[in-house]
Amino acid sequence: MQIKNTRWLTLCLIGLGTLACDVNSSSSDASTGGTLSSNGGAQSAGTAGFAPGGAGGAPGGAGGGAPSAGAAGTGLSSAGSAGIRGISPLDAVKEMRLGWNLGNTLDATPGGETGWGNPLTTKQMIDTLKAAGFNTIRLPVTWKDHLGPAPDYTIDAAWLARVQEVANYVLSNGMYAIVNSHHDEWVSLMPDADPALVTDKLAKLWTQIAMAFRNCDDHLVLETLNEPRTTDATEWTGGTTAARAILNGYNAAAVKAIRDTGGNNALRFVMIPTHGANSATQCINDLVIPNDDPRIIVSLHTYYPWAFSGDSAGTAQFGSTSELTAMSAELDRIANLTVKKGRAVIIGEWGTLDKANTAARVTHAQAFATAMRQHGFVPIWWDNNLIGADAGFGLLNRSTLSWYYPEIKDALVAGVAAVP
After folding, report:
1. Would residue 227 show up in a list of annotated catalytic residues for this protein?
2. In a domain, 79, yes or no
3. Which of 22, 74, 189, 255 pairs as cysteine with 243 (C-beta 3.0–4.6 A)?
């Protein structure tokens, strides 16, 4: 989420039949799935509208090796793994339908899961979301407070197990789970950062996460970073050319680390963000897809229009013909840069602040959910379990398992259902 301030910051598996992955097995034979070659070589031709290849001259260009020979047109090995169905990212996004963020929970820092005032996540929460019509749960996770020292940066075993447990609440329901690296802002895009250190740490982090989820089927999606960005005046305006090049290197290093663990990770869907997950044209055009990997999904956030959705001092009204037309035009622009060029997109965060304007929020929710689905995106609502104009994107009351605004929830479901 783009608005982050201090006021916001107020092992057993579930036995429900066959799970989508065995979290206790991370060392199965790599031969069960295709792997990516680490040898050098020419990179595949780039998808139109995206820069092809590895790091684009930025640090962390470890993803620059040529993929192993595989299925025609994919650049990936055709050797499949159990649970990797071979569907395209565009088809997977269709299956994801409607999503919800477990915000301000596993991403809370410091303090861990309950550090920002949210209760421990339960299977019943996820069941409630499934029953309501959501099919994708994004799990924002902050790892920095749970890492050991250099050079190994070992993830605390109990924390990793808890993330796996929550992910399996989702996967055991046949839903998609997205696990990311959220407030790990040591991944700096500023010119004074040490790119070699960041690249090494990021690669080791993602090697461990990927190994933990290696046996999960393709309903488990990994997202390299949340909103990586500069920390100067360009923070929310798309950064700089240099910053976007640095990010390309970091994305490449994370993707390579994931792919190199083999098994299902060789073909797993992986999301990579633009600078700040910004959907601006320059940010999308400057994004490099490592090795033109066809299993990469672009991660974007769009609180559109900002004055209504994310600005507590902005307008509380929405729904005029001109506003709806402008919404469609904005999504046309994004789709023209991505989906219409064959690259799947997940809108990993969006939503509207609670300004005592439920009727307008209902109109926006249904219209935006429908429009995103029409443009080939999956809409994933940012939910921090808070209400009020200052920070309130909450929909599900996680303590009572009731809905703060059932009308908005129903509007989201109806909006998605309107698109086959």
Report:
1. yes
2. no
3. 189
Catalytic choice (165, 223, 227, 330): 227
In a domain, 409, yes or no: yes
In the block, residue with structure tokens 């057993």? 12
Cα–Cα distance measured from residue 42 to residue 75, given in angstroms and rounded to the nearest whole number: 12
Which candidate, 224, 225, 223, 218, places its Cα nearest to that of 267?
218
Nearest to 73 by CA among 293, 270, 253, 279: 293
Chain segment 312-353, per-residue pLDDT in tens: 999 999 999 999 999 999 999 999 999 999 999 999 999 999
Chain center to CA of 115: 22
Total tally of structural domains belonging to the chain: 1
Compute φ and ψ for 136, nearest 5 degrees. -140, 130
From 165, 185, 349, 407, the catalytic residue: 349
In which domain, by residue range, is 268 found?
92-417
For tokens 């994933």, the residue is 380
The phi-psi region of residue 277 (left if phi > 0; otherwise alpha if psi is between -120 and 50; otherwise beta) is: left
- Within-domain flag for 59: no
Dump pLDDT digits (tens) for 282-300: 999 999 999 999 999 999 9
State the Cα–Cα distance between residues 81 and 346, nearest whole angstrom.
24
Please give the structure tokens belonging to residue 44: 């595949």
20 in helix, strand or coil? coil
Q: Which regions in the chain score pLDDT beneath 50? A: 2-19, 23-49, 52-80
In whole angstroms, give the CA distance from residue 248 to residue 259. 16
Beta bridge partners of 189: none
Q: Which pTM value belongs to this model?
A: 0.86
Residue 49 belongs to a domain: no
CATH of the domain at 294: 3.20.20.80
One-letter identity of residue 120: L
To 10 degrees, what angle do helices 406-417 and 358-374 make? 20
